[in-house]
Amino acid sequence: MKTLFHTCRRLLLPTLLLVAGAASGQVEPTLPVSADPGRARYAPSAAERAQHRGLTALALPFFDDFTTPLEGLPKTQNWVPTGGALVSNRLALRPLTRGAATLDGLKANGQSYSGTVTSNYGRIDSLVSQPINLSGLTASDQVALSFAWQAGSIVGVLNRNTGSTPVQLELFVRTDAGIWQSVWVQRGNRQRTAFRQQVILLSQPEYLHANFQFMFVATGNTSDNSDGWSVDYILLDRGRSRGLADTTFADIATSAGVIGQTVSGGMASPLGRFSAMPVWQFNAATPAGREFNPQLGVTLSNLNAGVLPIPIDVLGTVRVLPASAPLGNWLQISRPLPVNPRQNNVTGPADLPSIPRTSDAKTLRYTMALNTLETLPRTLANDTIFRDVELNDYYAYDDGTAENITQLVPYNTGQAAAFAYRIDLNQPDRVRGLRLYPVFTASDRASRNVTINVWQDAAGQPGTLLASKAAVIPNPLPANGQYFEISFDLPVPVSGSFYVGYSQPSQGRNLHYGLDLNSTFPAGYLWRRDNNGAWNTTSFGPSGSLMMRPVMNNNTSTATASAREAAAFSVYPNPAHGTVTVAGPGFARAAVLDAVGRTVWEQPGASAGRTTLALPALPAGAYTLRLTLADGRTVGRRLLLE
């Protein structure tokens, strides 16, 4: 359903609030995500859709705490792969164990169900179990289905359930006659709840058959992710003699962020100021531990019955990916974990052990593992959690995922609005470019003009403009990347503190960019310029990090490597049909440019620097393979695709 009030609110309120924000210079409003293309890589394939249901019904017990996958489609061993639910550790708040399945208004491909930006209401995501064999069981077997649910998400509270705007989460079970019967419903009431547990007794004969299934169905805003419901720790089993009180389990697990900080998103960044930074800037930090998070950790959940604390061992290790022995321990403690409260923080300083100050780009994996002496195999996976931090050639305050979107005021007169991040350097450097995370929504899917800028520091705020570069961000973006990188004509020299960001022409367009709600930036480090040219510090409501990342080049004045250095690299096979391999010294990342210099593919951050490049299907022709070295210089190699 669509209402005139909700349509007008959606179109007018963001602009009105943004103009009000310009006067105060304090808080930028944000919007729910109406398109999240990053989810598209998790959408079920044709083969997975064909496997609509398993060939053999599952046996009891049925259990899923959504510990795996880390993010993506619910595992098809348990779930029909067509409902649109997303497993992640970044949307639910303080789940029982790390990871939860979230149902909202975005389909598996990241697009909204309505395909519009106006508020419409109806059925959104669902989560359907594979068939489960309950044949031969009776009421005396005490079969029960339990689960934890949460209304709302890190995005915000749910909309209120009304006759014209239905917002609810409903549970159905399939009877022996093939009928989906509603057994539980929770309606939205403009509140965001903690996780609450629910037990459904399955004693009726019509439920106890060979092809039993259950299904969660969410109803809400079909145009964005504002109406989010999450479910966690689902257990269907026999012998549950405690009935409706069967809500405790022999399980101690990692959960989400640290209470009092970010309560979603898992382990925070091991870095204190950033989520990623250039390796040479990391190496130049004085003292050596300055860049680390002094309280790295997560919330632990104790789901056991009783009142006595349970002793556990906690070990935190760090290693360099993709495969290496641990560099050492950043945490090693033994402590009793109380039952009340259920969730407690465990933290330690990330500056232990010492990280090698080598010049090569690297990804560090910080892991926390619990030794709880549990014996059930299904509870062991949630005893481990990790966070990767990339030391490469760019700065980031965000973690790479967008839960909300924001925008600049599309002024019609005066100066163009601008956002700018402050960056404090450990040594002089040069800015090679800026990566932006554009979000193309139904309101404006056209390619967009943008100008990236670097400003000098002037008494703690943006001052003299050092460089600008106008560019067009295309839609669709180049393959294998949601960030779009724009490079300056020449690297921009900077020292001390500088400001980097973007502005947009005054074209009256609402152009959205990603906002990461699970990360923050230092207070006073984001600035916005109004159409009068005045700069004010700003932040977001709800809090989050604008997804833009300055790319540095280790103070190298020339952007290209020498001919002798470039000759050390080769690529094969060449010509190629798809996957190619780079031979030669190490490099930070790779990209493919077409004949007119446009980037058509970028190496994903998770595989940056790997020598095997799985290229997408590109038109046959001549391309340039651009390799960026650890010091920021680039090497070009001609590549023919057939």
UniProtKB/TrEMBL annotation:
Keyword annotations: Signal
Superkingdom, taxonomy of origin: Bacteria
Signal peptide positions (record): 1-25
Name under which the protein is recorded: T9SS type A sorting domain-containing protein
Organism from which the protein derives: Hymenobacter montanus
